[in-house]
Amino acid sequence: MGRRIVILGNSGSGKSTLARRIGAALDIPVTHLDALYWRPGWVRAQLEDFRAAVATAASTDSWVIDGNYSATMDLRLPLADTVVFLDVSRSVSLYRVFRRQLREHGRDTQAPGCVSKVDAELLTWIWQWPPRRTRMLDQLAEEAPATRQVLLSTRRDVRAFLADLH
């Protein structure tokens, strides 16, 4: 039986890191939605192309897909057996984004041809997270009521979740 895991959370919450760790622990493919959405130079993909790429990634038996992108929830949530919601504070998200920027400065990190950056759009996204968080949790309750939902708020929570994977 396959595993299908969606990871959601604010920018800087640790979605990509957790996705990689789950993928390695379960030996299943990892898809980062940022890599499907962004084109070189931070150009957004056409919605139809993006949705097609997400549908392809979600069509396999086992996967971890990290990223919010509400326009693709309908493609992922019905297929997921687990939704992991990383619920860290804005200050933790901001700290991690700036730390990532220092670590990855000048490198393609989110998608090919997209050099790591911290800009006003990203900072605004993080700061305005609380209302988005509420909408996302409402969407999960509506679209995936029977799917296992895991809320992780601390590193201890993440460690315990990873230890319990089988």
Automatic annotation (TrEMBL):
Signal peptide: none annotated. Gene3D superfamilies: P-loop containing nucleotide triphosphate hydrolases. It comes from the Bacteria. The keyword Transferase applies. GO terms for molecular function: kinase activity. The keyword Kinase applies. Keywords: Kinase, Transferase. InterPro entries: Cytidylate_Kinase-2, P-loop_NTPase. This is Adenylate kinase family enzyme.
